Amino acid sequence: MSSSFQINIERLSNFAYDTLNPNISDSTDPRVPIPLDNTTGEVILSTIRLPVQKEKSFIWLSATVGFRVNGPDASNPPAAMIFRIYRGNPDTGNLIYTTTDSGQGGAGEPTFRTTNLNHVDTQKKTCSCVSYTLTVEAVDIESIDIIGPITFTAAEILDSN
Amino acid sequence: MANPLKIRLGKLIQFIFDILRPNTSNSTDPRVPVILPPASEPVTLSCITVPVSKESPLVWLSATIGSLSVFSLDPSRLVFSIWRGQPDTGELIFSTADNGQGNGTSRTTTFTHVDQPNRRFCRKITYCLTAQAFDNEDNINIIGPVTFTGASIKN
C-alpha cells in the first residue's frame, strides 16, 4: 500500500501584496488622493488575491495607510477612521477585521498620520484562491485625504499541527 | 511500490532584522535618543542588508519607531523613509508621514512596504530607514523602540 511522504522546507507558502507606485507620502499614483468627508461612505483602498494551499493554513494580513487630516477646518472629537478587511468583497464577503483610528486634527494646519494594521485569518480554506479587500470609512470628520502610502499584504503560513 | 514523494519549497528565502538593545521605549542603547531639531536633515535610524532571490525577488519590509515630541504645535510632522541603498545615493522606495505634534507626547509609528527590485540588482540589497521632522518648533526625539525587518521572498 502506498503512503504519501511530504517534505515541507518551510512554512511561508504564498505571498501577495499591493502597493501604490510610488508608495510614498503624497504619492503621484493616480489611485490617490482619495478625498473623504462625512458623506463619502466606505471606500475600497486595495484588493489582493492569494493562492492558498488546500490544507490548513493561516493568512497573515498587514496594511499601512497614510492620510492627511486637512485644515483649516478642524476635525474635532470623535472624528474617526474605520478600517475594515473583508474576505471577498464588501458586498458579498465576510467582514473579518476592523479597527478605528483617530481622524482628529487639522486645526489651522494639516495633521499627517500613519495607520498600520495586522490580522491573522484562520478560516479553513474551501478553494485554491482567496481575496481580501481593505476599506476605509471616515465618520464625524471635516475633510481627510488618503495620500499614501497604501500597502496591503497577505502571507500564507502553513500550520504545523 | 513507489511512494509519491512531494517536496514543497518555501518562499521565505531569508529574514534580516535590526533592533535596539534593549528594544524598549527610552532604550539605553547608545544609538538613541536620536535628536531631530527644527529644520534638520534626515537622520539614518537603521540599515539592513538583505540577500535576495535571483528569480522574482520581493523584499517585505517593516518598521516600528517610538518617538517623543518635546513641544511642537501644528503642523509638525515626522516623515519616515526607506531607501534602496544609502539615503544620499540610493532610491527612495517608501515614505510615510505621521503626526509630530505634541507637548511631551509619545508616539509609535509602524509601517510595511514590499519592494520588487529589478533583477539587475546584486544578490544583496541594503535598505536604509531615515527619519526627518518638518515644521517642528522644538526637538522630536527618537527614543526607541527601533525595529527594521526585511523578509526576502521568492514570488
Order of helices and strands of chain B: EEEEEEEEEE
Q: Quick one: how many beta strands of chain A? A: 10
Name the biggest interface. A-B, 43 and 39 residues
Q: How many helix segments of chain A?
A: 0
Strand residue percentage of chain B: over 45%
Q: What are the segments of chain B in which pLDDT stays under 50 over at least 5 consecutive residues?
A: none
Q: Could you tell me the strand content of chain A as a percent range?
A: over 45%
Mean pLDDT of chain A: 92
CATH superfamily of chain B: icosahedral virus
> Strand pairing plus helix content of chain A: what structural class?
mainly beta
CATH class of chain B: Mainly Beta
Uncertain residue ranges of chain A: none
CATH overall fold name of chain B: Jelly Rolls
Seen as an oligomer or otherwise, the chain set is heterodimer
> Helix/strand/pairing class of chain B, anyone?
mainly beta
Overall helicity of chain A: under 10%
Please summarize the sheet with the most strands of chain B: 5 strands, antiparallel
Radius of gyration of chain A: 19 Å
Q: What number is the mean pLDDT of chain B?
A: 93
Please provide a written account of the structure.
The complex is a heterodimer of chains A (161) and B (155). Chain A is mainly β and 161 residues long. Chain A contains no helices and ten strands. The model of chain A has no long low-confidence stretch (mean pLDDT 92). With 155 residues, chain B is an all-beta fold. In chain B, strands 2, 3, 5, 8 and 10 form a five-stranded antiparallel β-sheet that branches. A four-stranded antiparallel β-sheet of chain B has the order 4-9-6-7, with no helix packed on it. Chain B starts with a strand and ends with a strand. Classes of the chains: A mainly beta (161), B mainly beta (155). β1 of chain A pairs parallel with β1 of chain B.
